Amino acid sequence: MGNLAGAIHELPLRVALLPLIFLAACAAPPKPPVAPLAVPPVALPAAPFAVSKWEMLPDWQTIDLQPTWAAFLQSCRALKSKPVWQTVCARTGELAQPDNTALRTFFEEGFTPYQVFNPDGSSQGLITGYYEPKLPGSRVRTEHFRYPLYAVPDDLLTIDLGEAYPQLKDLRLRGRLQGKRIVPYYNRAEIEAGKAALQGRELFWVKNAVDLFFLQIQGSGRIELPDGSLVKVGYAEQNGHPYISIGKKLIEMGELKIEEASMQGIKDWAERYPEKLNALLAQNPSYVFFRELPNGLSAPLGALGVPLTETYSIAVDPRTIPLGAPVFLATTYPNTAEPLNRLVLAQDTGGAIKGAVRADFFWGFGEQAGIQAGRMKQGGQMWVLFPKGAEPVLSP
User: Fold this and answer.
1) How do 157-160 and 313-315 pair as beta strands?
2) In the chain, which stretches have pLDDT less than 50?
């Protein structure tokens, strides 16, 4: 569903990959020009994987796989009809209340681990965090609740390019009609200035512009209404503009040091300089639209379409890591050297999550989850588990 301490988690947004189209940025490239109607074929880079061995995965023999299993069953809900996943997902029904030994055997017999590498051949990458925040709000505008969460506007076009160009699978064009042309949709500054047709599309109103901005970054959250009830909201669409980190902008402007550019650091800056806030937020042209979610959901829905599992789901760049796949993550807890080694599931994307060895770790709901997510900016390594028989073809 991008991170805050420098590569702020952008939630489930896609990224501009092609020079001639404007694409939504997850979970970030200069503003693209107007998209042509014809898109030439594009050759995608080879998968940056190397076959590995189970013993290379730190603590593989001792980690707790029970929470992983619950998250894996969620992935299978979305993947079980896909040919490469049918066999391994069908086998989950053979395991009734499996222990760690049975689960370890299941993964070792059904999968092959591949280590992920960056284009420069390095195996270390950036691991950030995101979470599900809670915001006080109202269904109607009041003196205290003045900042709207919008539903998807009627004039926002979303075109699936993969239907016409298979090599562009999972890439979508977003824009609006201007006469007979498709042009980029309004950016954040234009939306805030009232140029988009959004009257009547307000879902909720919240107190604080910065909190709303970070809700858009996280991609999902809960609105606490005046009567104390909680309503879940989640990502519905995005305006098609690339995500730009305001934390990075504040560092470039000399307003914050690198170690201060966390979510809390940015909020503290906004309290000190409210007159500069609108100009800062406009530096990120990306804008997210929401939908109200059923309260029965156990957690936010990730890009895979299944509920995320607290501390066992990650957001990835789907150009490299297949959505739904198990990923062994070897990193450390925020601001420490304590190992955080576990088998997680790639169930989300984000605008700031770009690159091979790159992940956003889902910390769950609430204040403590937000503290961990805001602090997390760790180095890490990643191994993708591919179902046997569906391993990637590697270049010689």
Assistant:
1) unpaired
2) 2-46
